[in-house]
Design a protein that fits this description.
Helix content: 55-70%
Strand content: 5-15%
Catalytic activity: ATP + protein L-histidine = ADP + protein N-phospho-L-histidine
Order of helices and strands: HHHEEHHHHHHEHEEHEEHHEE
Main location: membrane
GO molecular function: ATP binding; phosphorelay sensor kinase activity
Number of strands: 9
CATH topology of the largest domain: Arp2/3 complex 21 kDa subunit ARPC3
Strand order of the largest sheet: 4-6-7-9-8
Membrane topology: Multi-pass membrane protein
CATH architecture of the largest domain: Orthogonal Bundle
Number of domains: 2
Radius of gyration: 35 Å
InterPro entries: HATPase_C_sf, HATPase_dom, His_kinase_dom, HisK_dim/P_dom, HisK_dim/P_sf, Sig_transdc_His_kin-like_C, Sig_transdc_His_kinase_LytS_TM
Length: 429
């Protein structure tokens, strides 16, 4: 027989098993390096898995090691298990058919043991395969090795009990070597799969980053181009506003001014958000920055009939690291939110506290407050508690403060007001 001749050629059958290992590893590399990159369709990729793992199974079973009469040792269960793990039932069932039909053609008593092993593996996979994707890398590896170990143990015990023979020294060494090489091959093949999947993920993320960067640059260009005509229109409408107008037309002009200012704010916020948050970092005096911010927004607070109160820290030389324009912009947005949320004759308090290596900036209003579900979504894109608001200003503020290694905590009660607690790392004086 062909198998007996090959067995004589490799009396200690390491050579045959090394051939089988190569027959598993090479098709796997071919699939990952060529087939998977050429075909993006999920269906075609699964057909590719059936092809490469089916080929591995056929080649492994074509070069087996004969042990007892009718029983052969090969690595067929590795591609079969990996087919189920990486392709699901759509890949696993065709591979199962290849294993059983090929073993039937080879013949011998071992066919019954193969059917039983396949049935056991299928039963385990039925109850646990849906959980595989939720496992971390370590548990995925253990799961694959457990399935392989079960197949090898059933085959080992089955051949001995069915043949009713005692293992010879050569057969014992053969079984130990067979199990060891199976484990090494399974780990190696999985490592190749996982490494190349991770590489694909990294390449995809790089491509997405480049695409989003290009889109961001394009959006910034559009925002800059829009900024100039909107500013010109705003200035023109302001001039019209100074003219003598009927009350109904003046109301329309006032509304136009408000809408144009809102558009300008959105563009400004977007440009700040799109700007590199790691640029122009320097030491900033927190007291000076807050004083300047409060001074610039004082007239806005007076217009809303809201009182601003400032409680500085004892040490007025506390410093943080950041971009001065962005830091003021973040503070301005949060204080502005507090003013807009506060009723007439309300109060917005801004305080600075020092605690160990951190600086706390508290912005507290006694406005309408927010419900818990509103607090959880604050700082998210397109989430605003204001009528016609976009939430972009708060998102910009959160991003700027986080780029300064800061944290923002929000506490609020309906009808009692909201407190923003900004925690920033203190820099050495």
């Amino acid at each position: 027989m062909f198998y007996e001749g090959m067995d004589r050629l490799f009396y200690f059958p390491v050579g045959l098993w090394l051939i089988q290992i190569l027959m598993i590893l090479f098709p796997t590399l071919f699939y990952q390096a060529y087939f998977k990159r050429k075909f993006q369709s999920v269906t075609k990729r699964k057909l590719g898995l059936i092809f490469i793992y089916g080929l591995s199974i056929l080649l492994c079973m074509a070069f087996p090691v004969s042990i007892n009469e009718g029983y052969i040792l090969d690595f067929r269960y590795i591609p079969l298990i990996l087919g189920f793990l990486y392709g699901g039932y759509q890949v696993g069932f065709p591979l199962l058919g290849i294993v059983l039909s090929t073993r039937f053609i080879i013949g011998g008593e071992g066919i019954y043991l193969t059917i039983f092993i396949c049935f056991v593996l299928l039963a385990i996979l039925h109850f646990s395969l849906h959980k595989y994707e939720k496992f971390d890398s370590k548990h995925k590896r253990l799961y694959a090795l457990s399935l392989l170990a079960i197949a090898i143990m059933i085959f080992g015990f089955g051949t001995q009990f069915l043949d009713d023979q005692v293992l010879s020294g050569r057969e014992f060494v053969l079984w130990i070597l067979f199990a060891t090489l199976n484990i090494i091959t399974m780990l190696s093949t999985r490592h190749i799969h996982e490494s190349l999947l991770e590489l694909d993920k990294i390449n995809f993320e790089i491509t997405e980053y480049e695409r989003m960067h290009l889109l961001s640059q394009f959006s910034i260009s559009i925002a800059h181009k829009l900024q100039s005509p909107i500013t010109n229109i705003h200035n023109s409408v302001e001039i019209i506003k100074t003219m003598e107008l009927p009350s109904n037309k003046r109301a329309v002009v006032n509304e136009m001014v408000e809408e144009l200012e809102a558009a300008q704010n959105i563009i400004r916020d977007y440009l700040v958000l799109a700007k590199d948050q790691n640029s122009q970092k320097m030491k900033l005096n927190v007291h000076s920055e807050l004083e300047a911010t409060l001074h610039s927004i004082q007239s806005y607070a007076q217009m809303h009939e809201v009182e601003l109160k400032f409680f500085p820290a004892i040490d007025k030389e506390l410093t943080v690291k950041g971009d001065p324009y962005q830091f003021r912009h973040a503070l301005l947005n949060l204080i502005k939110n507090g003013i807009e949320a506060t009723k007439e004759d309300g109060v917005v308090e801004v305080a600075i506290h020092e605690m160990l290596d951190s600086i706390y900036i508290l912005i507290e209003d006694n406005g309408k407050g927010m419900a818990n579900n509103e607090v959880r979504t604050i700082g998210s894109p397109i989430q605003s508690q204001k009528k016609n608001g976009t939430g972009l200003g708060t998102l910009v503020a959160f991003n700027i403060l986080k780029s300064m290694s800061g944290k923002i905590e929000v506490s609020s009660q309906l009808g009692r007001g909201t407190t923003f607690s900004i925690i920033l790392p203190k820099t050495a004086g």
